[in-house]
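Case study 2.
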Amino acid sequence: MPFRYTLLQRLCSCEEVAVASANQTFVIIPRSAPTKADASRRVANFDEIYADFPLADGKVQSSRCAQCGVPFCQSACPLENNIPDWLRLAAEGRAEEAWRQSEATSTMPEICGRICPQDRLCEGSCTLEQSGWETVTIGSVERWLGDMAFEKGWVDPIRPRAEKGQSVGIVGAGPAGLAAADRLRSAGYAVTIYDRHDRAGGLLTYGIPGFKLEKHVVGRRVDRLADGGVEFRLGVDVGGDLPFVEVRAAHDAVLVATGVYQARRLTAPGCGSDGVVAALDYLIASNRKGFGDAVPAYDDGALNAAGKRVVVIGGGDTAMDCVRTAVRQGATAVTCLYRRDRENMPGSARETANAEEEGVVFEWLASPRAVLGGASGVTGVRAQRMALAAQGADGRWSVEALPGGEFDLPADLVIEALGFEAEDMPTLFETPDLALTDWRTIRTAGHTKATTLEGVFAAGDIVRGASLVVWAVRDGQDAAAEIDAWLSSQRRAAA
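Prediction:
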């Protein structure tokens, strides 16, 4: 008996193994991902690097699901998607029904299918992966179903059964705000979304590069909301152009879903030099250029890696977006500097592998000590070799410097991808009664989305800190349900 089969027996009863062997195909069909563009070709453009499954391949890969009695993939998904159900339906050729199951728990399945770190979530928790059979390609099937739904017209327009006569203002057009708007408008509320950018989508539009998420995929979700009656007020800076008190006065409830955009910056000597830029500034410039916008800072080279030696400092998904963008812009060399090792890198292992295929060099266990050059430009980064020291209660390892481990990396452009923090929301909104946590994110009551301001709720990164898009979607959907319940109670009290 194969070793992997023996492992599966330990996880399932004998009867379950027999059923799985007869009805699921993981024992005879290997895992196969969709076609991926060759690295030498894909670095020439910003197109998505993965294709959708052909119909036959999508059905076959879906059929590999073992239909576990306790689906660890579902419990590992922040949205608690009904993954085994829609995999079974897809395997049976019932693609539209599979899509309906998928969209029942997620307002953006085709987006999450593209950008979720499935290797750390659903696919990493798959029973087949744990037992040595290789995981089901959950994310790729989710994307495939979502794209098929738009192509075949299965995505229903938003048409509320009845109007509630109450309105909700949402500050922030990122994933949390869009997800909340979808659910609230569907329930019959008038919804207005305010955003400081000229396009909706937040980081989906201006942060994540096109090779991971092409912009028409975000655009069709935004168009569906607009067609369904959601009003977008773009280019409006709430707290700047428009006082927050006016937003509250205009609506029966308000959701703050601004995300966190204040970049953490280097404190090493030389970090204020020209040629040291924040990751989000760099990515926004690149995405705007992709839209065809005039971007002076890109055209003059300040936010353009073409012909430059680039060093990106950081180890998360934003750092991976930066290194892969720099390659496509024509950098002569791209290096990622990260103070821990590969196993302790917070970014997706899939994105790290893609970056390596595209020519990015990783300097593991290396921390910046100084930026070399002068005020008018950089010539390199002085770094220090590190070693893992001790594992903390959160599972993360601390690091310590290795004696004599300094080395220099040549660089013309240094990109800081060190994460994001919240803006000072009480000051920005002129609401001193808006309570914050010790991390300056908005404090909510218990496990709710209610803030310390009556009728004001908060969701997404502005509450939990910089996190995953899928968590923002979950928070937005949960916030919508809570706002609906609160407004319903207000209607009953007024009746």
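The two ends are 69 Å apart (CA to CA).
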